[in-house]
Amino acid sequence: MFTIAASGAKDSSMGCFYQRKATHWPVRDFTLTGFKKSSNEANPVILEASLPRWDVSVNGSALADRGWALQEHMMASRTMFWTEDGLFWQCGELCASEYESEVQPVNDIGTGEIILQIDALVNAIEHNPIVFSGSRTTWMQVVQEISIRSFTVMTDKLPAVSGLGHEVARMTGKFLMGIWKHNTVEELAWNVNW
């Protein structure tokens, strides 16, 4: 199973699938010859095709700014992103696109793996304070990411954080309305950067 993200849609009326212009993205590199580096030798100029990039097509999409979409993305173990530029996909370990033959390691917090990381965090709180001190940033990143996202109803931010927390609490039972029971004081000590 996987989640399908309509990453190119600005709202629900736009749908998921887009007709792409064939000329929008070049399909191969092109070499121009005849340029002279010196009087004796030719110096070819290579024009490389510019392909869609993950950071622009997926992370720069309208959907990437939405709070509930972030929660859905974090809960999903696999996601296919249909963008205006093409198809991209991601699982807990790798991300790829229809344009790249090589897969890349995942470097964001937006996968179902976040639940496993938070579970490890809770275990670290209980059993190994040294591991906990390095791991707790995972949860704080989640809260920070949700806090900067757009919600149609602004009061949905706490329920979005709570929804992720309750998923973890199902496994651990250690979540209290957005904070972890064993780290209550530190997680309540935060401020807003303007």
The assembly state of the depicted protein chains is single chain
Largest sheet: 5 strands, mixed
Percentage of β-strand residues: 5-15%
User: Please, how many helices?
Assistant: 7
Using only C-alpha atoms, the radius of gyration works out to: 22 Å
In what order do the strands lie side by side in the largest sheet?
Answer: 1-4-5-6-7
Spatial gap, N to C terminus: 40 Å
Tell how many strands the DSSP assignment holds: 9
Low-confidence region ranges: none
Overall number of domains? 2
Structural class: alpha+beta
**Average pLDDT value?**
74
Specify the overall morphology: elongated
| Share in helix | 25-40%
Give the SSE order as H and E letters.
Answer: EEEHHEEEEHHHHEEH
Protein name: Heterokaryon incompatibility domain-containing protein
Organism: Venturia effusa
Walk me through what this model shows.
The protein contains 7 helices and 9 strands; from the N terminus they run E-E-E-H-H-E-E-E-E-H-H-H-H-E-E-H. It has 2 domains: 3-15 and 25-105, no CATH class; 113-188, no CATH class. The two termini are 40 Å apart. Strand 4 (78-82) and strand 5 (87-91) form a beta hairpin. The radius of gyration is 22 Å and the shape is elongated. The chain has helices at 54-57, 67-75, 113-127, 129-135, 137-147, 157-172, 184-188; strands spanning 3-5, 30-32, 45-47, 78-82, 87-91, 94-97, 104-105, 175-176, 179-180. The protein has a 5-stranded mixed β-sheet, with helices on one face. A two-stranded antiparallel sheet has the order 2-3. The chain is of the alpha+beta class. The longest helix has 16 residues, at 157-172. This is Heterokaryon incompatibility domain-containing protein.
